[in-house]
């Protein structure tokens, strides 16, 4: 699923702040399972997507686009009932964007996309989708989920975000009764506020979200279109394809979240499986991961960061279970995956510095999603079908937090979910007749490809493609993934136009990557850390210029002093060190900027020997000049740099 915490990702898109969105961090996924699930009543057993007695003609209203979109894009609201099974249900508005293709050979069947979550925003991806090959000759429709940021009402829950932040500062663990009570109080406050605003949470379920997709096609006047879902929205898009076979030309399921998955019961095992897969080249990675979790559970790390709700400094406690949960999100990202082995190894050895990055980037995810929508869907469609037993460690705090929220809300399972997932399912899923492409990432801990393959067997003619070196949301992480999806939409019988087995990045082991916070801290405003580097650059360049000028004069006179020669070579060596370091960091950034938020390639450390050589030459020049102050300055600068290099970097 696309989770509410999307923090660990896209450092490359926020380089001034080191571009981190350490994607996707922490998400919040948990719930409860009563001893039995009551069978649906006659009323509750109504067809999940439509009800003939309360049918309304779907319509759209124009609206101003809430975010920058490509020229020629129109935005609006789909006006639909909050609950289609209730005759007098109020109307709500679901945001969408429509980009019309201007191609001469424009195809009549557009692509309609919805983000995951539940509760991930979608409209901001309009330009990204239209830039894909699939958007060159087709209209692109981007549909929000009901209750999300660009829909009305917006089901945000700052009370839950506040509660989750509070639990990260509490001394207990994820299963601590005090933490559960804090989550429950935040959940109750949010539910009561939404209820006072007239929100009926029973209307925010997968079947209604799928019905919105079908209604939007009809309201926009398209005969057919191509459905594109990622993570959680693969569920709603699959349900839409089942309900609207005549209007569905093809279906793309990226990071498939199968309808019968038990996410909460299987989350820890899925993460362990991804760690094991990532550690194929480092057989000890799973053991190091367990060591890291155990160490931090025994002695949690204290990390100072900013409160995303107030902007004030706060201190959070990160246990091993907390860090495992964060990595469960971080491993969604293709630019974070390569450094996970080195990060785990460093933290297992007692180096807590990388946790600063995780804590800093986690906060933004707390205010980036509408938790009211997230929990309405997860509590009614997923949580009640999990047992929440026998987790062991790591005990993902998202699982515990979600269980506490769903217990507090007390919502029943949605009728359509009970029909297909209850103890005695009475409504087998309808067969999807349209061609289906399922794509998944090799290291995805949330929607593993193995589960996607198994679930895809129930979809006649479905094709599954696994992409090497990729985590979650293939179309965001892999150029080959985007090309494969676009080729499928153009011709569902087309083979992949590229090699999905070729990874985007090589995985860096502990010996290949040195964990250090220097680059990240500089990118977040600690510019003073570069003072030793800058002083060494200035003095080395000065040595080189002054030495070269003296060499020219003394050569003309036929006599070159050893001090001048040593000074010149020391300056040249120092400038060489600066250039090597700059090129090494630039090359690392060009291939994977996100990694620089965690550390630097180990090769960069060896460049320090060049600086040490420069310092030694400067020292000899100082001694031969009989401690002249002019030759003492470069020595002081070099010693300062070497101390910084060894003790800090």
Layout of strands and helices, then pairs:
Blueprint: E1 59-63, E2 73-81, E3 91-99, E4 111-114, H1 126-131, E5 140-143, H2 158-168, H3 177-196, H4 206-220, E6 225-230, H5 233-243, E7 248-254, H6 263-278, H7 285-298, E8 301-306, E9 313-318, H8 320-330, H9 340-348, H10 354-362, H11 371-381, H12 397-409, H13 415-421, E10 436-441, H14 449-456, E11 463-467, H15 474-477, H16 479-490, E12 513-515, H17 518-523, H18 531-557, H19 562-596, E13 599-601, H20 602-606, H21 608-624, H22 629-647
Parallel strand pairs: 4-5, 4-6, 6-7, 7-10, 10-11
Antiparallel strand pairs: 1-2, 2-3, 3-5, 8-9, 12-13
Verbal overview:
44% of the residues lie in helices and 11% in strands. It has 22 helices and 13 strands. It has helices at 126-131, 158-168, 177-196, 206-220, 233-243, 263-278, 285-298, 320-330, 340-348, 354-362, 371-381, 397-409, 415-421, 449-456, 474-477, 479-490, 518-523, 531-557, 562-596, 602-606, 608-624, 629-647, and strands spanning 59-63, 73-81, 91-99, 111-114, 140-143, 225-230, 248-254, 301-306, 313-318, 436-441, 463-467, 513-515, 599-601. A hairpin with a 6-residue loop joins strand 8 (301-306) and strand 9. The radius of gyration is 28 Å and the shape is elongated. The two termini are 37 Å apart. Residues 2-54 have low confidence and may be disordered.
């Amino acid at each position: 699923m696309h989770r509410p915490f999307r923090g660990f990702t896209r450092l490359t898109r926020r380089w001034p702040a080191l571009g981190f969105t350490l994607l996707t961090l922490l998400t919040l996924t948990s719930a409860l399972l009563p001893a039995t699930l009551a069978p649906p009543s006659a009323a509750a057993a109504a067809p999940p997507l439509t009800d003939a007695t309360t049918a309304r003609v779907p319509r759209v209203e124009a609206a101003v686009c809430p975010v920058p979109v490509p020229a020629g894009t129109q935005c609006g609201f789909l006006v639909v009932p909050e609950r289609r099974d209730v005759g007098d249900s109020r109307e709500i508005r679901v945001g969408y964007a429509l980009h019309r293709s201007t191609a001469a050979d424009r195809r009549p069947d557009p692509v309609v996309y919805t983000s995951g979550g539940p509760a991930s925003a979608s409209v901001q991806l309009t330009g990204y989708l239209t830039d894909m090959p699939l958007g060159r000759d087709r209209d692109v429709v981007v549909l929000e989920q009901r209750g999300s940021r660009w829909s009305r009402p917006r089901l945000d829950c700052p009370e839950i975000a506040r509660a989750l932040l509070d639990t990260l500062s509490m001394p207990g663990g994820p299963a601590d009764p005090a933490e559960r009570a804090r989550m429950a109080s935040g959940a109750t406050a949010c539910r009561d506020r939404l209820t006072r605003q007239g929100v009926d949470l029973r209307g925010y379920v997968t079947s209604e979200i799928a019905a919105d997709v079908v209604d939007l096609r009809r309201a926009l006047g398209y005969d057919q279109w191509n459905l594109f879902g990622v993570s959680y929205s693969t569920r709603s898009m699959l349900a839409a394809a089942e309900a609207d076979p005549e209007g569905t030309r093809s279906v793309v399921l990226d990071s498939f979240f199968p309808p019968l998955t038990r996410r909460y019961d299987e989350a820890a095992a899925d993460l362990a499986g991804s760690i094991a897969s990532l550690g194929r080249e480092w057989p000890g990675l799973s053991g190091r991961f367990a060591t890291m979790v155990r160490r931090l559970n025994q002695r949690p790390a204290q990390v100072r960061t900013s409160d995303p709700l107030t902007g004030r400094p706060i201190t959070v406690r990160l246990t091993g279970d907390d860090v495992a949960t964060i990595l469960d999100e971080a491993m969604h990202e293709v630019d974070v995956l390569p450094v996970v082995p080195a990060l785990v190894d460093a933290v297992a050895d007692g180096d807590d510095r990388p946790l600063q990055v995780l804590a800093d980037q986690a906060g933004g995810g707390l205010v980036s999603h509408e938790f009211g929508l997230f929990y309405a869907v997860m509590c009614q469609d997923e949580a009640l079908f999990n047992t929440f037993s026998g987790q062991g460690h790591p005990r993902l705090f998202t699982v515990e937090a979600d269980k506490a929220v769903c217990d507090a809300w007390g919502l029943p399972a949605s009728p359509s979910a009970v029909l297909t997932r209850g103890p005695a399912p009475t409504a087998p899923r309808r067969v999807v007749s349209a061609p289906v492409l399922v794509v998944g990432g090799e290291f995805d801990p949330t929607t593993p490809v193995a589960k996607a393959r198994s679930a895809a067997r129930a979809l006649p003619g479905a094709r599954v493609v696994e992409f090497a070196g990729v985590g979650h949301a293939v179309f965001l992480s892999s150029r080959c993934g985007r090309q494969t999806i676009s080729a499928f939409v153009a011709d569902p019988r087309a083979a992949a136009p590229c090699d999905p087995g070729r990874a985007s990045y090589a995985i860096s082991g502990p010996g290949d990557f040195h964990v250090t916070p220097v680059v990240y801290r500089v990118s977040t405003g600690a510019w003073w850390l570069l003072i030793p580097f800058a002083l060494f650059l200035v003095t080395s360049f000065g040595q080189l210029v002054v030495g070269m000028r003296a060499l020219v004069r003394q050569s003309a006179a036929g006599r070159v002093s050893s001090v001048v020669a040593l000074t010149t070579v020391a300056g040249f060596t120092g400038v060489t060190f600066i250039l090597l370091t700059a090129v090494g960091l630039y090359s690392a950034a060009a291939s994977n900027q996100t990694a620089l938020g965690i550390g630097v390639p180990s090769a960069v450390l060896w460049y320090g020997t060049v600086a040490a050589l420069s310092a030694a030459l400067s020292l000899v020049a100082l001694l031969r000049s009989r401690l002249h102050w002019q030759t003492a300055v470069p020595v002081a600068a070099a010693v300062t740099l070497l101390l910084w290099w060894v003790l800090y970097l």
